[in-house]
């Protein structure tokens, strides 16, 4: 749900578990050469502190803070229209900067051709059918343009973020999107042979994965979800909700593993939460994920490292068309550190859980 704000956050995110039985470099990942070792990856979206200007130095400071934890993986979601603002004109400078500043961490990359219920691509492409030769060619081209920048870092490569927000009102386009993924997957695999191919859904879409979204899921190596245990009015559900919800996702994706691209729990009293409830969620969620095991759950990203400043909350409410007090409270208080950059109880819990899940 919250990846839309990465237009402004510069996309910094880290994730949690990953099966390292493929061609990732042992020197980079810490596994011994020649052995199929299953390691959990844990991460946090390393957004700058609320009082910062969100420019390069602030991003570097936030990544440095993230590196003080046992986070061992970087998740990065980038809007297509920012990479290719006009047909055939590409800008990969931000990707290059973040890939360099997070080296040598493995990367889960999401090319957001869809996000927040909309097509995010140059205007000239928006009317094209997903399975048209032109659309497939354009997506393959942008994948090719950023491949030298990403290099061999990606372990996961997603096409589309929370795609169910878009397809809920356009079910007739699902099969064409699946056919597009089938073609683009070949391009991704050729350029990033170690990357596992995926697309991202909200948790709410899990009951429809084997029916409505079956043509899409059929093309995926693993299924990616975003997960926030909230009621419809953004009031928090119990801290241990993942205990019951994780089996739902696993059953929907079966026999594929899953990856939790985003998990989060606000600390706002307006939503029935507290900093201690947020801490309890972090503890329970990562314990549940560890118990499921890395062959079933590849990973999860906690969103965010820091609470968001008001100006950014304003931008996000516009992007989602929701400026209600409860939505604002949800967006504003997801961070593990407060608006004054003081650690909430959940920060220390994340540090502890990261060490348990992904020891150095």
Walk me through the structure.
The chain is α/β, with parallel strands linked by helices and 360 residues long. It has a single domain (2-357), classed as Alpha-Beta Barrel (TIM Barrel). It is 39% helix and 16% strand. The chain has helices spanning 6-9, 26-29, 56-67, 80-83, 93-101, 133-150, 164-167, 174-191, 214-217, 242-253, 275-292, 310-320, 325-332, 345-357; strands spanning 12-13, 18-20, 37-39, 41-44, 74-79, 107-112, 114-115, 118-119, 154-159, 196-198, 200-202, 223-227, 258-263, 297-302. Residues 2-37 have low confidence and may be disordered.
Unreliable parts: 2-37
The largest β sheet comes out as: 5 strands, mixed
Give the domain tally: 1
CATH topology: TIM Barrel
Task: Report the top-level CATH class.
Answer: Alpha Beta
Question: What's the helix count?
Answer: 14
Taking the alpha carbons of the first and last residues, their distance comes to 30 Å
Number of strands: 14
Q: Quick check: average pLDDT?
A: 89
As laid out across the biggest beta sheet, the strand order is 1-5-6-9-10
Class by SSE composition: alpha/beta
Principal-axis shape equals globular
What is the helix fraction of residues, given as a range? Answer: 25-40%
Q: Which architecture does the CATH hierarchy give at level 2?
A: Alpha-Beta Barrel
Gyration radius, rounded: 19 Å
Strand percentage: 15-25%
What's the order of the H and E elements? HEEHEEHEHHEEEHEHHEEHEHEHEHHH
**Please, what is the CATH homologous superfamily?**
Glycosidases
């Amino acid at each position: 749900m919250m990846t839309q704000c990465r237009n402004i956050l510069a996309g910094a995110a880290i994730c949690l578990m990953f099966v390292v039985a493929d061609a990732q470099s042992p020197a980079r990942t810490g596994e011994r050469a020649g052995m199929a070792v299953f390691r959990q990856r844990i991460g946090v979206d390393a957004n700058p502190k609320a009082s910062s200007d969100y420019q390069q130095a602030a991003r570097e400071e936030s990544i440095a803070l993230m590196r003080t934890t046992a986070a061992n993986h970087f998740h990065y979601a980038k809007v297509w229209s920012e990479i290719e603002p006009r047909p055939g004109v590409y800008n990969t400078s931000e990707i290059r900067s973040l890939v360099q500043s997070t080296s040598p961490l493995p990367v889960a990359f999401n090319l957001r051709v869809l996000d927040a219920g909309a097509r995010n691509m140059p205007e000239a492409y928006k009317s094209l059918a997903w399975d048209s030769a032109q659309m497939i060619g354009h997506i393959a081209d942008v994948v090719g343009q950023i491949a030298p920048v990403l290099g061999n870092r990606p372990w996961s490569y997603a096409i589309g973020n929370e795609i169910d927000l878009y397809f809920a009102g356009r079910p007739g386009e699902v099969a064409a999107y699946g056919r597009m993924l089938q073609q683009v997957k070949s391009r991704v695999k050729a350029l990033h042979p170690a990357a596992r191919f995926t697309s991202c859904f909200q948790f709410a879409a899990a009951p429809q994965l084997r029916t409505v979204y079956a043509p899409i899921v059929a093309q995926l190596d693993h299924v990616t979800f975003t997960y926030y245990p909230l009621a419809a009015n953004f009031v928090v559900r119990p801290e241990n909700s993942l205990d019951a919800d994780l089996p739902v996702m696993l059953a929907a994706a079966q026999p594929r593993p899953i990856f939790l691209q985003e998990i989060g729990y606000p600390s706002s009293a307006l939503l029935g939460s507290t900093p201690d409830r947020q801490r309890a969620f972090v503890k329970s969620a990562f314990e549940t994920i560890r118990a499921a095991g890395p062959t079933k759950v590849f990973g999860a990203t906690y969103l965010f490292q820091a609470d968001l400043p008001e100006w950014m909350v304003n931008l996000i409410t516009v992007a989602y068309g929701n400026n209600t007090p409860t939505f604002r409270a949800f967006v504003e208080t997801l961070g593990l550190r407060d608006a004054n950059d003081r650690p909430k109880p959940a920060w220390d819990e994340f540090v502890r859980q990261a060490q348990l899940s992904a020891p150095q």
